[in-house]
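<context>
A single protein, sequence plus fold
<sample>
Here is the protein in question:
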Amino acid sequence: MPVRRGTREKRSADDSYETAGDETFDEDFDEDEEPYEDLSEEDLDEEDEEEEEDEPAKKPRRRSSALSAATAGAAGLRHIADLTSKETEGVTLVRRAEDGWLVEVEVVESRHIPSSGDMLSLYQIELDATGDLLSYRRVKRYRRGRADSAEGG
């Protein structure tokens, strides 16, 4: 849709500028006024020191070594997605291990139509206490919709 623009004559008197020919001037502008102060290097250094004194010292943020189960699950999901380059379905298990976390992630190995024909895999990931990957392996491969034998299906 085209945009209509008014001409200079149609603009309201409330505008904060006046036109003279093709030039536009701000009503508040004074040509004799200098826009910037001349500051010496010493003045600039003093201003920097004052700003530093006003700010409290910031401590560097350290990554917490203790992960929550949710954070460990998200880290495992991210690691598997990066390593396999496959679409992840979700986290199926998060359990604290000796020195970290054990996470299981369901991955779509291959898509089919209908989706009940999709091939899924279950990956087991071992993370250290900070969420870094120690190891991973595929523990199961199955067709979507098949009952898990451990659940009595």
Confidence is low (pLDDT under 50) at residues 10-26.
